[in-house]
Give the backbone structure.
Amino acid sequence: MAFQPEPVQEPASMLAPEKQAMKARKMWVDSLLRIMKSKTSFIGLLIIALLLITALFAPLIASHDPAAQSIVDRYQPPSGKHILGTDELGRDIFSRIVYGTRISIQIGLIAVGISLIIGVLLGGIAGYFGRWIDQVIMRIIDIMMAFPSILLAIALVAVLGPSLRNAMIAVGIVGIPQFARIVRGAVLSVKETEYIEAARAIGAKDGRILGQHVLPNCLAPIIVQATLSIGTAILDAAGLSFLGLGAQPPSPEWGAMLSDGRAALQTAPWVITFPGIAIFLVVLGFNLFGDGLRDALDPRLKQ
Amino acid sequence: MKKKTGLLLLAIFCSLLFVVAACSNDTGSKKDSGKNTEAEGSGSSGEKTLVFGRGADSIQLDPSKVTDGESLNVTIQIYDTLVKYNPEDTEVQPSLATEWNVSDDGKKWTFKLRDDVKFHDGTDFTAEDVVYNFERWQTGAEFIYYGYMFGATEDNLKGIVDKVEATGDYEVTFTLSEPNAPFLNTVAMSAFGIASPEAIEKYGEDYSKHPVGTGPFVFEEWVPDDQITLKKNEDYFGEVAKLDKVVFKTIPDNGARFMELQSGTIDVMNGLNPQDIQTVEGDDNLQIIRRPSMNVAYMAMNTDKEGPMADKKVRQAINMAVDKEQLITLFEGVGKAAKNPIPPSLWGYNDDVEDYKYDPDKAKALLAEAGYADGFDVSLYIFSNPRDYMPQPKVTAQAIQEMLKKVNINVKIVESDWDTHLEATENGKHDMAFLGWTGDNGDPDNFLYVLLDKDNAKMGSAGNIAFYKSDELHDLLKQAQVEMDQEKRSDLYKKAQELVHEDAPWLPIAHTTPPLAANKKVKNYQPHPTGGEAFNLVDIQ
């Protein structure tokens, strides 16, 4: 409505976001404290921290070169020399798992990054503009959701060609609908609020409103979804690698380790047990933390 | 797109399999025995059914359309050939033909046939049927083995088999355009099984799903990707089968198949993981049956591709950079290191050829000489399912990858399922590729000519996936084909092996004695070196 923004209004509108930011910061601190109080999410946080440290200091932690083979030493059970035993080519399983954390984190972050960026963009646009744009985008998302996720990922990798990079892209694409739906829902409720109307009233452009006012207020559900998605992404990518569609040899990716070791399932069970436990722990860690985060950020649970 | 759907299906199938394997073991066998007593009212102890577990389904049941073991192992039960091999070696003995002779110039072969044979559809077997089958094989280029064995091409569909005539009701005469020493052994190959002309006419395009032969078992049912059921041919002219039924069951995963054997839902399995041999030997209910070795596993280097692989020095260097002794330990005792393309069990094997010694330094020097001091990147195409000659392709590939890394060669492993692998390598997409061969007829020609002659280096249907084209070798192999004296042929083949060793189109890897695992109640299972055997002598007690 305001065709000529008055100078007086300028400092006022500058103040509001600052105050908001302070409030937000307090909200984050509150939430973090609440997470720490919950035992399960604290365990999740601990596992994630451990994972990050392992990935960061992999060369220091690993006892052997993860790719070094010693065929005569294959299928050694856990011992002092190889604390988790050796695999079918005499490689140290512990060192491979340690280096594998790097790959898993990479997969988790990049795949979820892809889903997040595209998903938030699509969901934001659909929710904010509504009408036919919303219809088109959400029907496409519906179609994507109609496929079982791992099947869609397999199909995508089959088209792109098997490699770790393509597996990350595939898992990322598969995760888009989750984000798009959540963001759309959040945007729908936020865009009806008074401060958005106010922003529109002072003549802010759609892009600015969406980017500066709507999306920051949808952050909480996005963060929760991202955390939970990392676990799923790692699991899906491990599944693809297990089928030979993800990480290629000699990469110490956990899913690939499972796949390579399954021939000796009965005679050398440690070859698949430990990578399996590693996958389990990491996915558990992200899920616990994600759940805790959801509880903490949910304003309805605020006391 | 073929590969993609294949992979997809495989993935879905595997997951389904786990579910099925988990919940249907007991009910499955119960249902079977129930059905058996119903069907066979007269049998006091019920039917004898042998369930054979294997890694892949048959592709077709028309032996003239396939080259894969999983198809031929079934068709050998249904069809007979003019002559057949001894149960334990590749010595030829009578089958549909009772006697035979060859003219002095080696060009005319006459076979006297049995007069008491009937096809499964009730029609009589006569010389005209043999002629019909050969003429059918000569009209299309789909019979790959025919091309391999008789040199047939698109332009010359007959190859060296000029004329096939019925010279009597029960006598057939072959006229060859040139002498062919392996001829008798070749017509004993299960791929040359004689089919019922009436059935071929009746089913037309669908014939490969309704196979009709004269063999010890009659085709009953085929559920694709699940199982093929055969029943005993009561009127078989040879030794009538002791089993009432044979079921070929497809269970892709070696481990899952082994678990089914342990639980007793299948009686025999191929493709045993080498690691599981000990488990079998320690199990009172199970036995290991070792197939005599007549195969070779190798890594072919695509000499046709521009770049390092075209250079003999590079190929020799690769041979030196691989520590075969280490590599062979990955075969867990079922394989011996190979240095020649033909197995030592075959006549004509040249034991004087000295294998390239493992010497990474010398390999590096050779690579430097060839201009590749800094190394290079190559692809290594491998198949995902284990084969008899290579029980662990991926592990073997990773070991080679690591060994070649030490001489600065960067190997990228490209893994695909069997069909896709064959298609890719036959079309020369690879730099290097794993493959192997199980001898079909006990003749060195079947290895050297099929796998290394320039005649078989045709894009799209190559048996020679190194695309190695040597005129010198071709002359030797051609001479050996027309020479009828085995002594002289043997010398020619020995020379051929020296030549192949020098040019190094392959890294020969191993000759294996592939283990089968079976329940102890399975008796008289005599595995044949060619990789397939008729089950009429097998019994269950």
User: Anything to note?
Assistant: Confidence is low (pLDDT under 50) at residues 1-15 of chain A. Chain A touches chain B through 28 residues (CB under 8 Å).
